[in-house]
Amino acid sequence: MQKYPDHLANYLETVNKELKIMIQRLKTPETLKNAMDYSLQAGGKRIRPMLIFSTLAAFKKDVAIGLPVACAVEMVHTYSLIHDDLPAMDNDDFRRGKPTNHKMYGEATAILAGDGLLTYSFQIISEIKQLSAEKRLAIINELAKASGPEGMVAGQIADMEGENQNLQLTELEYIHTHKTGKLLTFCVKVGAILADADKATIDLLEQFGYHIGLAFQIRDDILDVEGTIEQIGKDVGSDREKQKSTYPKILTLNGAKNKLKEHIAKAEGILESLPIDTGQLSFITELIAKRDR
Ligand code: GRG
Question: Strand, helix or coil at 246?
Fold first, then answer.
């Protein structure tokens, strides 16, 4: 993995520590605590928290205000990975180079660990004392839309239904804007909400999220083809009969690389048009374009 510059390494460290504390203080059986903690601390890149902090930095706000929401969004993301790895879904034995949650704790506990993370994320946001009740509700609403049946869950079912079919580009884009893009978009949007940004700026950041969401996925597909993704962490034990449509399959590898450049250029263009200090967001955009895992 690329080495993070100091500011991103600090964000990662802060989130890892806070997530540990949040799980430790739960009054719940140790098995569930351990299963939730295991996947939360399994080496995620923390791109989503970094987007929240970098958006707050763009508005010259104290990034600390974004910490509980950053942890909440990692809980939602982690729940989605735990459930996605289950035998009923992708049936993966390894993630990030480590045994998947159900391989460590069994299927039933893995389902509950995912359920626990999803619901705890909303509890965390509802309890942020520094925010008004109105703001907490707005953030909860945005997170529910991004992760629920109009967001990530919609993307996941469309993905399942698209297996073994030759999808059109628009159908593939539906899957990825929902499955991956909505949660990434939530992160920049929530940063703007926390910073009291105006609607026009929030709308532009939402478009930025759309482009980095697709770029993120196209990079994933390219890494798959080029075989540079850590194979032990990804596909071992997955259900190889399932054929999924990908950008390189639809557009060719070169076409996918061009599409990635297009989305990155559009994302950068939006950042340049904003009257805020988008340096950190621009850095993450580059990271997404060039990531090696
Ligand atoms: C089960 C409701 C439900 C949804 C699952 C997100 C998702 C939907 C499935 C994950 C499978 C997958 C490989 C999606 C493509 C892109 C993606 C979200 C990759 C993982 O995100 P990263 O790279 O993960 O940010 P880390 O490990 O860094 O946290």
Answer: coil
